[in-house]
């Protein structure tokens, strides 16, 4: 690991910072072994989650706050999802990482797919978890801009109890603040069209990266047709459906997700 | 003093199910246009135009139009069409547009052309005003809220340049790109129509208006926060090296005049009995937080004191509960009698005979010292007859008395003292009718 980074330690992980294109990017890092990059949902990153801890059993896990989210400074000029994909690739360069597998959660999955179209040599494997990014030919991606942000997060779970288990009945003010803040950045990147890029499926046809598409069986945010479109466009992709799970596979079924990732990435 | 008349032009259709105190939840952007009846629309558009013509006859200096989208409380989604008609069928009244929603225009050159045409057809009677719009407008015309303020400013700069700089030239901005700017329509007024900026809660906009020396028109906000906003304008003006005066302050407030006190009380209650209107306290419908809090629409750290009122509206229970259903107290609050009386006490609605209304108007003028005022009337569930009775009494008694008060208090409007220079306006032709 190289780079001009700054470290804060906890028992399980450290908090690091690096500058990319003139802006600070903060990331969490834990575990050891071959690295894996995890990109968070559009609602922001909620700290070192059990899913990351599970992945860290066998790998070094890097979870950046995407530029403009959480503790990573906003690139004012970034106005397309692709801009973030470029910045994350530049971050990998700066960290001196070789070909790296990427696990993209929801919106982070779309970013991971864009990264693969730009430079597939840098991406050794892809796990796209409930990724939007392609316009579904059946159904619509749930529009978070037309509902309250907490209603949107609730919609990401298969049932109310799962949401409560993660955030409590009444989410903490700082959590709600994160959602509110994250939504603003998301609106800067993908207000229209909402959560997809018409060019993406065409470009994915040349991406040879082995890809696992993970989808919660009860995902109420991103329709099945999107995963199917990814599978149809990518030459080396398969779909894995996780039972008893909504859009937030990383929160509802962290162990299962870690198993799937480990099996796919080897 | 400049005195204008205003109504939102509500879509009044008792058959629609969204009119009057229905006591059922009607969320903002929650009404299907399946119920829209163009025959009703035809009657109403013509009625509102007729009332504007009568307002001119009764001696108002200006008729004010506004713009909202996808909602029954305001039929002015394309107010420039109404303005163009008024430009032709009125003779001397100023046509005050408060305002076009700049950020939702993807092609502001069209707007520059439309406004120039209106100004020419009216032979220089256009007052143009620009706003940022609410969440409703950003959603309806799908304009990216985080860039609302950027787009507002760039569209403003673009239009003013299109009006004042001979073309052709090129414009390559962040949000607007034109390879050939050379509109074959220029404003009648030199250098361009007066620009007045209306608003309620964005501190950014007050500051921006003060830096441009544009009069700022507060839209039916409570007296105290309105005064504070004017004071903030004056502070910024001082920073800019000029003294803000009455010519920089406008105020819109609800005044209905009628023949008897009883009739006035009964009729003014109709303010809160039309289609749900988030701007009409007591009949807001169900406020939706996602619309008020669209990401990035308003900077969270720059709220004017008037935003306190919105918080109060929320606290009064006119907000969706967690499950999206209205709270119980909303359903039991049919009639809103208490709220109406409270508004009368707070002067957010003024009504009565000329004899009782004039002292209340004096109070507002003394308290706020605006150089331009607009009486907001004929709204909600008020009928054509209600509006015509009021307009007649305005003309016969209220306007002359208000002008006297304005003289006494030295409330000079933007047509008497130029807001851009603080010099008296020399051109008599430009003075109020």
Any overview of this molecule?
The complex is a heterodimer of chains A (266) and B (433). Chain A has one domain (6-265): Alpha/Beta hydrolase fold, catalytic domain (Rossmann fold, 3-Layer(aba) Sandwich). Chain A contains ten helices and nine strands. Chain A has helices at residues 50-55, 81-95, 107-118, 149-155, 160-167, 173-190, 200-204, 224-233, 249-252, 254-265, and strands spanning 6-9, 13-20, 23-30, 35-39, 60-64, 100-105, 123-129, 211-216, 237-242. In chain A, α2 packs across α3. In chain A, 51% of the residues are buried. Chain B contains 14 helices and eleven strands. In chain B, the strands form two sheets. An eight-stranded parallel beta barrel of chain B has the order 1-2-3-4-7-8-9-11, surrounded by eight helices. Chain B is α/β, with parallel strands linked by helices and 433 residues long. Chain B has one domain (2-430): Luciferase-like domain (TIM Barrel, Alpha-Beta Barrel), CATH 3.20.20. In chain B, α1 (38-57) packs across α2 (79-89), α1 (38-57) runs parallel beside α14 (384-408) and α2 packs parallel to α3. Helix content of chain B is 39%, strand content 14%. The chains are: A alpha/beta (266), B alpha/beta (433).
Integer count of domains of chain A? 1
**What is the string of SSEs of chain A from the N terminus onward?**
EEEEHEHEHEHHHHEHEHH
What class would the helix/strand composition of chain B place it in? alpha/beta
The H-level CATH homologous superfamily of chain B, spelled out, is Luciferase-like domain
Largest interface: A-B, 14 and 13 residues
* Rounded mean pLDDT score of chain B: 88
| CATH fold group of chain B | TIM Barrel
Weakly predicted, low-confidence segments of chain B: 300-304, 306-338
Major pleated sheet of chain A: 9 strands, mixed
What's the mean pLDDT score of chain A? 95
What amount of the residues of chain B lies in strands? 5-15%
The Rg value of chain A, from CA coordinates, equals 17 Å
- When the domains of chain B are counted, the total is 1
Separate helix tally of chain A: 10
**Largest beta sheet: strand ordering of chain B:** 1-2-3-4-7-8-9-11
